[in-house]
Methyl-accepting chemotaxis protein (Paramagnetospirillum magneticum), 245 residues
Amino acid sequence: MRGMTQHSETTRTRTQRTDRIEARANGVLGDCRRAFHAFGDLDELAENLRILSLNAELAAGRAGDKGKAVRALTQYTRELVNRLAQIQGEMHSLRGRTFAFSSTILWALMQLNLFERACHLMDEDAGPRHSRDCGNRAFADLMSMLVDTLDGMANAVNDLARRTHAVEEVVSQSDSIATNIAIEAAAAGVHEKEFRTVSDTMRTYVDDLRQMIDEASDAVRRAAEKGAALRRIGLDALDELHRNS
């Protein structure tokens, strides 16, 4: 009777832990979705910057010597546009990885719940000891796979944080370019208005990028915190299984 009571308590502990894992996993995925959604218009903004740089280069050509510096700045802008395109491609791949990890986690949790019920039923029916041992080993193996997946999910969130930081760097550099074009505009004579329009338009795009960063950074920070906690819960569960085996 004592053994059955102890096993029931263990089963409840397992269920509570897997419930927490599921809740945290859903929270991480929700935050990741928010971050990816925040960058949803990144492709369009990158294209707008590319077109702006081409128009600015044409304006610089018309300005002759007074447009040399602006021409160099527009070439640098296109390098930043290429960097944004690269980051966006990496984010598309990362999004697929993140959702794949999430699906695997939810599948593993469903299997763990089934194992918990099966082990509980075997214990109530006083089934053969070797059957319970096999069930516990299978449960531990599945939990080990889940912990590996949780680790992968946490790494994916860290990768997302790095991509977000990369966009921040592009924003900072684009802002500097806009400032320098405005400075060049002041000395461009009759071409001042055209260059200033380029600078003002670029600042508008920079502001849009900053808004993306603000929304994404908050979501990524929350996802990172939940991802770290999620991994700890999984490791604790695995350690407990090993201690009780």
